[in-house]
Structure formats: C-alpha cells, structure tokens
Amino acid sequence: MPLLLFRFLLGDLVPSFGVGLLAFTLVLLMEKVMRIVEWIVRKGVSVTDVFKIFGCLLPSFFVFTLPMALLLGVLLTFSRIQSENEMYALKACGVSLYRCLPPVYAFGVFISAVSLFLTGWVGPHSTRTFQSMFFSMATQNLFVGLKERVFFDALPNFVIYVENVVPEQSLVKGVFISDQTLTEQPVYYFAEEGEVHGNAEKGTIALLLKNGAIHRLGDTRGIYQVARFERYRVKINIGQMLIPRGAGKGRKRQMEELTLPELRKEILEGTHDKKEALKLGMNYHQRLAFPFAAIVFCTLGVPLALLSQQAGRYTGFSLSIVVMLLFFVLMQVGSGLTFSGYIPASLGAWLPNLVLGTMGVYLTWRKAEEKPLKVLDACAQLVRNLQEAVQRRFRDGF
Q: What does the DSSP 8-state code read for residue 152?
C-alpha cells in the first residue's frame, strides 16, 4: 500500500511540477530573451554564445522556480484529488492525510537539496562563467551591453553613457565615461563621438574619443582640472578584470559569485563595515532559507489545496500566486527589519519560512482532524468568486 500510494501521488505531482517549472522559468527568462534577441539581430552576437548565456542563466533562475513549481504542483495535485472525491476514497480505505504526506515530503526534500546545490555552488560558478563570457564578448563587441541614453556599469570601475550608438561603424556619439581605475576620485571624459576597438587576444577595449574634455579633481583640495583634446584613447583592460580576488589588482568578486563556503569565510573574516556585513549575512542565510522553502510549501500547500470540495485546478493555480506573493512580501519585511537593526540577519532571512511553515503545520493538523476553519473556507470561496468573475468578463467581452 505505501508503494502504491507513492506512485499514485508522485504520478500526479511530478507532471504538474514539470509544467509549473517550465512556465515559471519561461516567465523569468522572457525579459532576457528579448534582450538577447536584440543582441543577435542588431549587435551580431553568435547563436552559440546565446546558448552558452542561457546555460549560465538557468541555474540562478532554477533556484527560484524549483520551489515555486513544487508549490504549484502540490496545490494542483491535491486540488484535483479533493475535487474528484479521491480524498474521501482514500479515507474509506484507511489512508489518513498524514499517510499522504511522506511522498510529498520526499519529493520536497529532493527539490530542496537540488535548490541548495544550485544556490550554494552551481549558481556562483555559472555567474562567474557568465561574467567571463560577457567581458570576453565585450572585447569583441562592446555594443553587446551599450544602450542609448542608459548608464552602462557592467565593467568594474567604469560607467559609460552614450547618446547614440552606430554598431555598423563601431561608433558612439555623445559620450560620457567615468573612470575610477587609477585614483579614488573618478576621472570624467566627455566627447562628441568615439570609435570602439576591441582586442580579444589581449582582452582589451580601446575607445578613441574625439573632440572632448577630461575633468577631474586635483590632488590639492579645491582644485578642479579640465583638459581639452581633439583625440584621446581610453583603454579598458577587461582581461585584468577577470582575475579573481587576491591576484594583484584583479576584479573583486561580487556576493553572487561566491559559493556558500566562500561567503561564510568572507563573513567570518570580519573586515567589512556594519552595512556590508549585514548584506553578506543576509545573502548567506537567504541562500539557505530559500531552498528550504520547498519543504515549507509542501507543508502549506496540502491543506490549502483541500480547503473546499469545489476546489479545482484553477483554484490551485490562484492559490500558488497568492502564497508566492505572501512569501516575497515576508522576505521584504525580514530584510527591512534586518537592515533597520531590529532583528539579526539569520531571523530576517528565515522569517518567511517560519511564518508560512507554522501556518502550514497548524492547517495540516486542522485538516487531518477534520476541524473546520471558517476563515480559510471564506478565502477559498472568495478565490472562486474572483475566478468566475474573470471568466465571465472574458466570455462576455470587455
């Protein structure tokens, strides 16, 4: 009987999970897809590089979409079971709600482990690979990242702004560059136009500026220096930026590029100011907390899906959106309380799991003991009423 129950529940849960994973991942990728299509059509990026970029982006998206898809799968599965009276059939066979939970939790633990592996190790390495690919592509074609009238700050220590971009001629017009590679005070370049030249072998980009000026604060306080030029070359050594921390003047890795052990080591070193230490601590605990949310969603999703006899698949989808919104609201509340100094980073990061997990345990107990909860029944009825109103609106036309 236990094996048969596992096969019965997972046979419905896994396909629903797969559909949810595909849907949520496509939604998150949509913005990136439009940007990358622009790179291919207008900026000459090869299709091979595009597939490599997608490969680097997917792990970071899966960290979010795996728990979300699991929540949707649990809600859809148990909503269907409830609407088709299969839950009553199971109870008639002596199968309580508690005996239905092990298959769900087994799958939830698996998803949680995969998410933890992605956020702790695979994600940071893919982020580093993406950065390396991006900088490598930039040496061949800086126009991959440049957009007209938008500040471009993907290159460390540089901010670039251009009024007009002409990729066909490797030309930019109305140029502003902030360079902070050599001094604490940035050096500002203004030019009417500039030519972009990349050297992939040396890993450098050269911007040949024309008819402009250099602005900087002098070494003496109160001195402001301006130098005008007809032609001036600004060199960006991207190869040096790819060198990791601790290797000369190499680029310092961002938090997203650090694995969990590296991030923990960074926190224990204690060389950061209070604000930066809070950011590191929050990032570390959120990476642990979000994968664990998969188990929390299992706990909460089962009783929510069994709220009403009339609940169906559409109700499960609506409830998944509501729960995810509540989860991210609680994440923002936890972050706000942490950075305001009211609670430690560990509590702020785990706040959504604690709140929703406690709610899930309570609702599971109420449902297993068949004790009614009028508030949630009213919420379920409200969700159904909203669905019916939307369906009528689309059916009757706007």
A: B
